[in-house]
Model the fold of this input.
Amino acid sequence: MRFLRSHNILLMAFLAGCFVLYGCENDLKDLPGKKDKRAALDEGHNIEIYMSRNGKVQGKLTAPLMYIYQADSAYTEFPKTLHVDFYNDSLIVESQLDAGYAKDRSWENKVYLRDSVIVINKLKGDTLRCQELWWDKNLQKFYTNKPAKYSSKDHFVNYGKNGLEAKQDLSNLVFYDNSGTLPVPKDDTLAHTRDTLVNTTNH
Done:
């Protein structure tokens, strides 16, 4: 295992006080400047980052590819999927986040997520699905003003027409312009119900 060396300061800015770098199987290298005048781009592969707050490990972020942009407003990009495990106080995975793309805006301590975004509470089985989502690391919550679908394991499937907000464990849900709920059929699986809702709302 090799550790990131040459850009620890920038990476810690990205981590914004709550991420601890664990390691990654890569070497950082400078790439040519881009036409949009962004500064040199650093590239990392097979990323593993442990997140902590007040000395307690709160999660683990993994990604196959990471770019760090040194610009006036530095940011970190995960262009080929992002996965995060959020731990509870017993270090058990409480919820999980997956997205096809992520962009960490370090100056805001927020992460923009898009492309088949899924958040699952592993303990309750509840699931949030949307195409765009914001993750506020300071407040430890998710929010979006785009259509979102929330599935409860035993109770309902809820469609937020203009988005929603929720804590990282999918508690304290607030729906924007709620379009109603659909019961989960007893003789059907939750996965099938989710797929049906997606197909219905996309037409």
